[in-house]
Write a structure and sequence with these properties.
Layout lengths: L11 H28 L4 H29 L1
Helix pairs in contact: 1-2
């Protein structure tokens, strides 16, 4: 059985590993949510329409974030 990690004793490499694991987990949760939405669509046409909406929403968010970062610099 694996012992729990004592986060106070994690070295730099361990800390980086935990950060990467968190990023991967977030990625999978987000993609899982999008997939669940797509699988809930009633037809192939509505799946494609929903995918386009997701794409447009993600692209718009990316533009907003990029603009905020550029303005903050």
């Amino acid at each position: 059985m694996t012992e729990p990690v004592d986060l106070e004793q994690v070295d730099d490499q361990g800390e980086r590993h935990l950060e990467l694991t968190a990023v991967q987990a977030r990625w999978h949760v987000v993609l899982g949510s999008i997939r669940a939405d797509l699988e809930g669509q009633p037809s192939p046409t509505s799946v494609r329409t929903a995918a386009r909406r997701w794409n447009e929403a993600i692209t718009a968010m990316a533009e907003d974030v990029a603009t905020q970062m550029r303005n903050a610099a």
